[in-house]
Amino acid sequence: MNPWAAKIREGDARALARAATGVENRDPLALEVLRELAPFTGSARIIGITGPPGAGKSTLVDALAAAIRRQGKTVAIVAVDPSSRVSGGSILGDRIRMQRHHGDPGVFIRSMATRGAVGGLARATEDLVRLMDAAGKDFVVIETVGTGQDEVEIAGLAQVTVVVLVPGMGDDVQALKAGIMEIADIFVVNKADQPGADRVERELRAMLSLGDSDRPGPAIVRTVATEGTGAEELLEAVEHAPKPTEKQGRRTRRDGGCPGPPHIRIDHLGIAVKSLQEALGFYESLGLQAASRESVAAEKVLVAMLPAGESRLELLEPSAPDSPIAKFLEKRGPGLHHVALRVPDLNAAVERLRASGARLLNEPRPGAGGHLYVFIHPASTGGVLMELIQESET
Ligand code: ZN
Question: Which residues lie near ion ligand 1 (Cβ < 5 Å)?
Answer without folding.
Answer: 270, 314, 340, 387
